UniProtKB/TrEMBL annotation:
PROSITE patterns assigned to the protein according to its UniProt record, in alphabetical order: PI3_4_KINASE_3 (PS50290), PIK_HELICAL (PS51545)
RNA-binding as UniProt keyword: no
GO biological process: phosphatidylinositol phosphate biosynthetic process; phosphatidylinositol-mediated signaling
Protein name: 1-phosphatidylinositol 4-kinase
Lineage: Eukaryota, Sar, Alveolata, Ciliophora, Intramacronucleata
Keyword Transferase among record annotations: yes
Domain PIK helical: 1-176
Originating species: Paramecium octaurelia
Domain PI3K/PI4K catalytic, first and last residues per copy: 398-670
């Protein structure tokens, strides 16, 4: 990329693995002779011709019939792109639910990747399409802004390289959006007491004065959010400015002391400017259609590290249209019954964290002999008399519904029929573009499982990169890391295994919990194999209250592993410990047989729809190159990914043998066990 590439010095290009002509490693102009990074290894011309025939032969198409991924393939592969431009305008633009996704909004990262890295921001057809779409839909425009802002700079070894062309494009886009999305607000008459209550709610002054007043939805005066360092703002920038203020708090928090006091003071200051026209940019549960009322300051928690200070916030939100239309679904009808008398308003109470005991003795390992282990566990079960319901509450923490009820009872907005509480984590100093990309792929895998009607369960959560090294993510509630679970159990009795915990905690619901565990374990085993997700210690694996397992933190996948050369997890297809099998009832149990069956069927389904994964990966790699850590091995990583979908098998029988061998190879693999031990001795993460 001529001009964008000129912004990076030769030295930096070598650091990133960039070619001398273009910013990206696998550009179409300088690497055509050996170009397998765009799309699949099949003939590109043949593929594009097939897709063209598919759509040109159709008499009339509606947006639901056009596969957005097909259009992106045409965009990336055709030399003459006029048809691709035409189909772009016919695609469904956004989605109001999370699944299945066949809208351009879901593929904004790939679309912006093409504009920035393939067209150098010079393609007038794409630019005009984006501008038209942004004018047409406010949410689409905001996501385009955040995506471009996130790739407008590269942060590498604490050095920042900015791309001025992208920044200039963003400036021009904002100017147009400000003109097109400005609103004249109706000024409402407000009672002075109500006005004071709204302005002070969420601040220390509100608690001190113990203000009490009934706030109705019609009392809320929604207007643009004014950033903390400015005296005026614009509608289009309202939500952007709000999240910029939140991110700036995280940036300076790592230098604050004490951090929690600084954080709560800054959040209280933001609360003085709420409610305002700001929202959470997540599609899940139509969350972006809800307006932020207040940040619950006293619930905030900080997850400090040496270099970063990510923090947790929960926010009160409501849906303006549902309040105005008096709309009630089942959830609203249930909520509308939850009326709180004014006398119930009380001071916020901080919720102290439950201390997890640190035990110096090494926890007992799982016996290699299943029969002996099960026998020991049965003996322990006869002797242990513990309140496992209470232990479970301490492990999983306060139930999310209970948290909502507690906070709602103290809120002046409690009677809003559409009131909700949302839990978020704010992060800076991390490359959330890669984390967001990983969740996009996981969503794609889940859609494959759903399309094939398989009961495989992946827990998808929303994440949005808001800048080159910052963003927000949905916090998974009602779940605990295996690490914290084991610490708690170990502090009670070192002989309490994961299997015994399941039996005692779930009781009559044991089989349902075991089945949830089985279906989720098989699903995550598959994606950990295909995407080579590493760093799978017990701090990154969670158990949900329903019994399903889930994974978080995708800083290492496709071609990058932790360990600085040690690579404990190398050649481990996926993490499958004998304690997981014990939860299912042992190697001869029906549930372990179901696990093997689901793994095989899931593998076949993923192989059948592999292009839905491979295309997204290759599109991103064709632009970002080595600048995303997951592509650190370059072209080799792409070849290896494709080979994992296509083992040397000629029929389902051979695939069945292959998948069962993967399971056998993973079961109690010594590398996975040693990685857990390494994390225990150096990080204190239990195994």
């Amino acid at each position: 990329m001529a001009e964008i590439g000129e912004e990076i010095t030769i030295k930096r290009k070598k650091q990133y693995g960039l070619c001398s002509k273009l910013w990206c490693l696998r550009c179409m102009n300088c690497c055509k002779a050996d170009d397998v990074s765009i799309l699949t290894s099949r003939n590109r011309k043949e593929l594009s011709v097939k897709l063209m025939a598919k759509y040109q032969n159709a008499i009339q198409l509606n947006p639901e019939e056009i596969q957005v991924l097909d259009v992106l393939i045409l965009l990336y592969t055709l030399d003459e792109k006029s048809w691709a431009y035409q189909y772009l305008y016919q695609c469904k633009l956004i989605s109001n639910d999370e699944s299945p996704r066949n809208d351009l909004e879901f593929y904004i990262p790939q679309l912006m990747n093409y504009l920035v890295f393939h067209e150098e921001m010079l393609n007038e057809n794409i630019s005009q399409f984006i501008l038209t779409s942004c004018i047409h839909n406010f949410y689409f425009a905001q996501l385009v802004y955040w995506t471009l802002h996130s790739i407008s700079a590269i942060v590498f070894n604490n050095q920042v390289t900015e791309f001025q062309k992208v920044k200039l494009y963003l400036q021009n886009l904002v100017k147009r959006m400000v003109l097109n999305h400005e609103t004249n607000y109706e000024i409402k008459e407000q009672d002075e007491k109500v006005k004071e209550l709204i302005s002070l709610y969420g601040t220390p002054q509100f608690e001190q004065q113990q203000l009490k007043c009934l706030i109705l939805p019609e009392h809320i005066q929604l207007s643009k959010y004014i950033p903390l360092d400015q005296e005026e703002g614009y509608d289009f920038m309202s939500c952007i400015n709000f999240w910029n203020d939140i991110i700036s708090i995280s940036d300076k928090l790592k230098f604050a002391d004490p951090k929690i006091i600084s954080l709560r003071a800054d959040l209280s200051l933001i609360n003085t400017r709420l409610p305002a026209n700001v929202y959470i940019p997540f599609v899940k549960d139509q969350l972006r259609h809800y307006t932020i009322l207040n940040i619950v300051v006293q619930e905030t928690k900080i997850f400090s590290t040496k270099e970063r200070a990510p923090f947790y916030i929960c926010v009160e939100v409501y849906n303006v249209e549902k309040e105005e239309n008096k709309f009630e679904d089942k959830r609203e009808r249930k909520n509308s019954e939850f009326n709180v008398e004014l006398s119930m308003f009380s001071d916020f109470r901080s919720q102290s964290n439950l201390a997890m005991s640190q035990v110096s003795n090494q926890s007992l390992g799982v016996s290699e002999c299943y029969e002996i282990e099960l026998s020991r566990e049965q003996k322990r079960a006869n002797n242990v008399v513990l309140d496992f319901e209470k232990i479970g509450q301490e492990i999983f923490g306060e139930d999310s519904n209970q948290i909502s009820e507690r906070i709602r009872s103290q809120s002046p907005y409690s009677h809003f029929r559409s009131w909700r509480l949302v839990h978020l984590i704010v992060k800076t100093g991390d490359n959330l573009k890669q984390e967001q990309f990983a969740l996009q792929l996981i969503n794609q895998f889940q859609m494959i499982f759903q399309n094939e009607r398989l009961p495989l369960k992946l827990t998808t959560y929303d994440i949005q990169s808001l800048g080159p090294s910052s963003g927000i993510m949905e916090m998974v509630k009602d779940a605990a890391t295996i690490d914290s679970l084991k610490k708690k159990l170990n502090s009670i009795d070192k002989d309490i295994t994961l299997s015994l915990f399941f039996k005692k905690y779930y009781g009559a619901n044991l089989h349902k919990a075991q089945r949830n565990f089985c279906c989720s374990l098989a699903a995550y085993s598959l994606i950990c194999y295909f995407l080579q997700i590493k760093d799978r210690h017990n701090g990154n694996i969670l158990l949900h209250k329903s019994g399903k397992i889930l994974h978080i933190d995708f800083g290492f996948f496709i071609s990058i592993s932790p360990g600085k050369g040690l690579e404990f997890e190398k050649n481990v297809p996926f993490k499958l410990l004998s304690e997981y099998i014990d939860v299912l009832g042992g190697t001869k149990s029906e549930l372990f047989t179901l696990f093997r069956k689901l793994f095989f069927k899931g593998f076949v389904a993923c192989q059948k729809h592999q292009d839905q994964i491979l295309l997204l990966v290759k599109m991103m790699y064709s632009g970002h190159g080595y600048t995303l850590p997951c592509f650190s091995k370059g072209e080799i990583a792409i070849h290896e990914l494709e080979s994992r979908f296509n083992p040397p098998c000629s029929n389902d029988g051979e695939i069945s043998v292959f998948t069962q061998n993967l399971i056998n190879q993973s079961l109690d693999n010594w590398r996975a066990k040693w990685y857990d031990k390494f994390q225990y001795y150096f990080q204190g993460i239990f195994y």
